[in-house]
Amino acid sequence: MQAIKKCSRVYLEAYTSILMVQKDRLEAFYGKELILADRDTVETQSDEILHNADKEDVCLLVVGDPFGATTHTDIVLRARALKIPTRVIHNASIMNAIGASGLQLYNFGQTVSLVFFTETWKPDSFYDRIKENADVGLHTLVLLDIKVKEQSDENLARGRKIYEPPRYMSIPLAVSQLIEIESLRKTGTLDPEKTLAIGLSRVGGGDENQRIVSGSLKELLDHPQEAYGEPLHSLVIVGRRLHHLEVEYAEDFAINRENWRAIARDVYGCTLE
């Protein structure tokens, strides 16, 4: 709070996540005007943010932890190159709040990102990372794609600053893409009937916003989309090194408690009371 009040310019990064409070409420709280920083500002016009930052205090507010996105790391590196001193104030993010699922943080492996597929572009490198985690029994946090201030191919080619409506990947769409790649790879890593997963939305947003749903991939796919709540959504692929306390905790969120426990016991080999 005091750090923000001392700044002559305060930027609010507005594209790598969703802020669950209105900009004007933040301005009233901080007593400062907030300058919205979109993708172009942060990624290609960071000089604007760093302008005169060697002579006056400037800050960039982000949703989650500042080092949760490589874009923010790049800004720090640019500041260092210009001999501008920096200070980072850390914050909670989905990387640690995912513990709300009941899964232990030290049982997570590599985090992966899942992008929107198109008819001609279906990158599947995420599958290899999930399999590497699964092979040693670790959970995988899957971060779902966000499309904010994106241009169509035609508008991009014509240089027109016309942007598509925002899109946020839902859990059912994410699961359908995972299953699509599993049908091509056929390793069983993401077997829809035998793989447990947990879908989460607006973690930390209070009971009126947060949603957590657990089940097999098939159950998550078939579950009504409205049950997952508003974006942003995240997904966890449950690893085979599953502890009975994790099973019991996440059981409260299960679409079908009996099936959740049956897969944990019979497929994952988890000893349950």
Any key phrases for this structure?
273 residues, 3-stranded parallel β-sheet, alpha/beta, single chain, 35% helix, 12 helices
Distance between the termini: 48 Å
Q: Strand order of the main beta sheet, please?
A: 4-5-10-8-9
Uncertain stretches: none
Kindly state the number of beta strands.
10
Quote the beta fraction: 15-25%
Averaging pLDDT over every residue, what do you get? 92
Structure description:
The protein is an alpha/beta fold and 273 residues long. 35% of the residues lie in helices and 15% in strands. The chain contains 12 helices and 10 strands. The chain has helices at 2-5, 23-30, 39-44, 46-50, 70-81, 94-97, 125-135, 153-158, 171-185, 217-222, 244-251, 257-266; strands spanning 9-13, 34-37, 58-61, 112-114, 140-144, 146-147, 167-168, 196-201, 211-216, 233-237. The strands form 3 sheets. The protein has a 5-stranded mixed sheet with strand order 4-5-10-8-9. The chain has a 3-stranded parallel sheet with strand order 2-1-3. Strands 6-7 form a two-stranded antiparallel sheet. β1, α2 and β2 (34-37) form a beta-alpha-beta unit. The chain is globular and about 65 Å long. The model has no long low-confidence stretch (mean pLDDT 92).
